Amino acid sequence: MAFTFQINNQVKFNHDQRLLEKATQYKPIIHYHDVVPQSIVELVKDSTKLEGWGTTFIKKASELPNLKLKRDQRVILDFGDHYVGKFSIDLNSAGSPMDSPLFIKFKFAEMPAELKHQSDDYDGWLSKSWIQEEYIHLDVLPTHLELPRRYSFRYVEISIIDTSPKWQAVLTNPILISETSVNSKDVMLPNIKDTELQNIYQVGLKTLEDCMQDVFEDGPKRDRRLWIGDLRLQALADYATFKDVDLVKRCLYLFGAMTAEDGRVPANVFTKPRNLPDDTFLLDYSLFFISILDDFEKFHLDREVLHDLYPIAKKQMNVALNKIDQNGHLVIDDDYPVFIDWSNDFDKDTAGQAVLIYTLRQFIDLAKIMGDQEIDQYSQQLQLLISYSQTVLYDPAQGLFISGPQKEVNIASQVWMVLAHVMDDANNNEVMTNAVAQLFPITGIATPYMYHHVTQALFEAGLSNEAVKLMKQYWGKMISLGADTFWEAFEPDNPNYSPYGSPILNSYCHAWSCTPVYLIQKYLIGEG
Amino acid sequence: MAFTFQINNQVKFNHDQRLLEKATQYKPIIHYHDVVPQSIVELVKDSTKLEGWGTTFIKKASELPNLKLKRDQRVILDFGDHYVGKFSIDLNSAGSPMDSPLFIKFKFAEMPAELKHQSDDYDGWLSKSWIQEEYIHLDVLPTHLELPRRYSFRYVEISIIDTSPKWQAVLTNPILISETSVNSKDVMLPNIKDTELQNIYQVGLKTLEDCMQDVFEDGPKRDRRLWIGDLRLQALADYATFKDVDLVKRCLYLFGAMTAEDGRVPANVFTKPRNLPDDTFLLDYSLFFISILDDFEKFHLDREVLHDLYPIAKKQMNVALNKIDQNGHLVIDDDYPVFIDWSNDFDKDTAGQAVLIYTLRQFIDLAKIMGDQEIDQYSQQLQLLISYSQTVLYDPAQGLFISGPQKEVNIASQVWMVLAHVMDDANNNEVMTNAVAQLFPITGIATPYMYHHVTQALFEAGLSNEAVKLMKQYWGKMISLGADTFWEAFEPDNPNYSPYGSPILNSYCHAWSCTPVYLIQKYLIGEG
C-alpha cells in the first residue's frame, strides 16, 4: 500500500533495543539466482491485455550480441516471468574507435503497458523517483555494467540515447540476479483440479515470493516497505505456503520495538538506513498488530514472542477501546483514521467498529493464553460493541448493516461485520446473500486488499460458490490481462485504472493481493 | 577539435610496442586538489555575456545545508573558475522518514549559457553523450555520493527531480576534485604591462593547464583526446610556460607508435581503454608530426626521441611529396584532405601547399641533425614547391596569394604562405598588409586555431600592432563575454555561434585556443 498520506513528524518514538535485537536476529538470508532473458520482444497492440499492450517475439535473446545499436535504437528483453533483483550486462563498441561516451537508458517494467508511458508525462503526487529507469554514461568500452539498485521486473528496455555516427553499441550477457528470502520450489503445491484456480494459486505464490525480502515488503517495485496491513495478509499466505515463521517474527518485533511515545504501533516501518518508524498512524492497522500476533501464535505457538509482544498488543486495544462511547460505538477521529480501503468515497464507521470487534476477539484469545487478570473487562467491552452493532448498525428491514449518519449501506460494512461474526452463521449468510444481490458487482473498490475481505466474508458466510466466482472474476481477470504477479490496484470495470495516473507508478507485484493462496488453502483444500 | 568526420575502419595499423612502452614511461602524474564552491548563484539576463546569460550571487555556498529542497527545486553552485575534475557531495533527508528514493540531476557547465539549454532540445549530429549531466537515483540517505566520471566545469546545477511530499533533500559538502598534470602556480608569470594582454595570458594559461591531463587533450569536456593539430599548438604553449617536455614526448611516441600500415600518422589517437589510433587522416595533421618533433628538438634537443621518431617523420614527408606534380604543385585528394580550418567554404589548395613548405623546412632541419644522406633531394623539392608558389600562386597584381581553379583570395592562403616564408620579409609584410586591408575583418572563420595562425602571420610579417589588436579583438572578446578559459569555436561577428547547434555541446576550454601564452612570450616578451 502507499496511498495513505500523513505527516506527523513531530511524533516521538520508542526504540526498544532488546526487541530490535530480536528483529535483527531473525533477519533472513537472501537467495540470489542468475536468470537470463528468454527473448527479445516488441510491444504490440493487444486489446485483451492491460491498457491494450502485449508483446510479440522478435528474436531469441541469444541473438542480442549480433545487434549493432545506434542512436535512438532499442531492444526489449523478456525474462519470461516476474522477478525482483539486480541487472548486469556487458557492453562493447563496434565500428570505428569509440570517439564519444555511450549514453544509454535502462527501463525496467513489470507489465508491457509501462513501456508505453514516458516518465516526463507523469506529474502525479507520488514520487517520480519510483519510476524504474536509469540513465548511464559510459566513457570507456568494453565494460561490465552492474546496476547497483534492485528492480522489480520482467522486461528491460535498453535504449541507446547516443553513440556517435562512427560506432555502435553491442550488448552481451544480460543477467537478472533474482533476490528473495524464500523459494517457491520448496512449496508442496496443493492438488487443485480447477485449472483456473491452479493458475490463480501459482500467480499468488509468485507474488508472495517476490515480496518476501529482508522484510515482508508491500511491493518490491514501490514502496518496498513493511506495512502492517500487508503484513497481516502476507503472514496468513505464508503459513499456507512457505511456512517461514522467522520472517513474521522479525516483522512483529520491528513494529513492537518502534511504537510512538503514546504506545501506538505505526502503520509502517523502514529498515534502511536503520530501523525507523514512519509517522503514519491508522487505527485499524494498529489493531492488526494484535491480529498478526494471534494468527502467528495459532500457527506456531511461541511463548517468548507472545510474552515480548503481548503488552504492545494490549496497548493497541486499550487505545482503541478508549474511543468507544457508553453505547459501545467506536468514535473514529480524523487524526487516527481507519484505512479499510483506499477509497474515501464510502463511510467507514461500521467497518471500523467491526475491525475492533474482530481484533478484540483475537486479543481475548491471547489474553487467555497469557492468563491476563483483566480479561473480563475486555469481554464486557466486546459484548457492548457487539450489542451496539446488532441493535443500532444492523438494519433488519434491509438485512444489511448501515454506516454513519446517512445510514449508508456499503460493501465494507457487511464484509467486516461478517468477518467479525457479530451475527450468527445464518444471519451472516443472509447478510452476504443480500450483499451479493444488492451490492454486486462491486463498484468503486480498486484494491485486492478489500476484495480479499469480500471473498473471505463470502467463504465465512457459507457462500463458497460466490467466493470462487469472485476470485476468478477478480484475480483470474488480472491473469487474463497479462499478470505474472497480482497487482496493488485493480478495478475490474476499469482495468486500466491507476491510482497514480500512470501505470509506470503502479506496483504490479503487491503483497496484499497474494491472498488467494491462503483462501484456496483454507476454504477449498482444508486447513492442512 | 572534433568537427572532422571520417570513417575508415578497414584501415590496419601498426602497433610498435617499443615506442608504446616509451609513451607509457612518460605518463604524467595527475595532481588532485579539493575545490569548494564560492557561492550559490542564479542565471540572469546579461546582454554583455555569451548568449545573453550571466549569473548573480544569491547566497554564500556555506548556506547550502540550510536549504530543504523539494520536487523541481534547484541550486547552481559556482566554483569561481574553470576546473577539470570529479564531483562529490553528501546528501541527506529532512522532514518525515524518506519514503521514496531521491531522484536528482547534476548538470555541469563551463558557461552559464549552457544551463539555459535542455538536452532534449539538441538533435545535432555530435553525440548527445557529451552533454555533461547525470540522473541519479538514491534509495537510501544519508549518503556520500562520488560521481565516477570527470567533468569540465565551473558551475554545477543540482536539480531535485523528486523527493516525496513527505521529505526534502539536504545537500552538504560539495567538492570538486580538480585534475591536471601541471600547476599554473609553478609558472613564473611574465611581466606584462598591458592589463588586457595580462588577462588574455592568464586565461590562456588556465586553458592549457586544464587540457594537460594524461595526454594533451583537445578539450577536457569534449572530445578529451589527443589530436595532432591541437598538440602542435599546445606543445609550443607548453614550452613558453610549464616547460613539461615529458608530456610532449609521450604524445609524440603515441603517434609514432600507431601509424597506419601505409605509414601515415593518424589525426588523433585514443589512450583508453588502450592505446588505439583513430581512423581519421588529414594530410596537414600528418605533416605536423614533423613540426612537433622539430619544435621539440629545438626546445630540448633529445637524440633518443629524434632517432626513434625521425623515420616516422620522414615517412609523412615522403607520402606528401609523392603528391606534388612536376611543377611543384601539391595535389590534394579527398581521401587525404587538409584541415586548415573547420570551414569548408574556402579553397584550401594554397594553404595546403604552404603547410607542406612550412613542414618541409622543419624536416630539413631535422634531416641535418640526423645527417640524412638524402637531404639534397628534399632541398630540391622545397625549391620546386617554393618556386611554384611564387610564380603561380602569388598574384603580383593583387599582392596576395590565390587558391584553386577560381583563383580565390582567402585569408588562410596568405597566412600560411607568410608562415612558410615563401616570400622575403618585405613581401610578407606587403602580403599581410594587403590581407588586413582587403580581408579584415575576417569572416567565416570560427576557430581560434585559424585565428592563431593569422595572428602569428601578422607577427612574422612585422605587423605587431595589428597582431596585438587582433588578439585583443578575438581572445579579449571571449573574456569580456565571460570566458574563464578559451573556447573551441568563436566567431566575433556571431558570438553565439555553435558549430553543433547548441552551447551544451560546445567545448569552452579548448587546447587550440590557448596560444596567446606562446604568442605573447615569443613576440612581445622575447624567446627567453
Task: Give the structure's gist in a few sentences.
Two copies of one chain form a homodimer. The first copy, chain A, is α+β, with helices and mostly antiparallel strands and 528 residues long.
Description of the molecule:
Two copies of one chain form a homodimer. Chain A has 528 residues and is α+β, with helices and mostly antiparallel strands. In chain A, 36% of the residues lie in helices and 18% in strands. The radius of gyration of chain A is 25 Å and the shape is globular. The longest helix of chain A is centred in the C-terminal third of the chain and has 22 residues, at 349-370. The relative contact order of chain A is 0.14. In chain A, the strands form three sheets. In chain A, strands 1, 2, 3, 4, 5, 6, 7, 8 and 9 form a nine-stranded antiparallel sheet that branches. In chain A, strands 10-11-12 form a three-stranded antiparallel sheet. The first copy, chain A, has two domains: 20-29 and 189-525, Glycosyltransferase, CATH 1.50.10; 31-180, Sandwich (Jelly Rolls). The first copy, chain A, has 13 helices and 14 strands.
Through-space gap between termini of chain A: 30 Å
Overall geometric form of chain A:
globular
Poorly predicted regions of chain A are: none
Kindly provide the radius of gyration of chain A, computed on alpha-carbon positions and rounded to a whole number of angstroms: 25 Å
Mean of all residue-level pLDDT scores of chain A = 96
Domain Alpha-L-rhamnosidase six-hairpin glycosidase (chains A, B): 194-522
Pfam families (chains A, B): Bac_rhamnosid6H (PF17389), Glyco_hydro_78_N (PF21104)
Protein name (chains A, B): Bacterial alpha-L-rhamnosidase
Domain Glycosyl hydrolase family 78 alpha-rhamnosidase N-terminal (chains A, B): 37-174
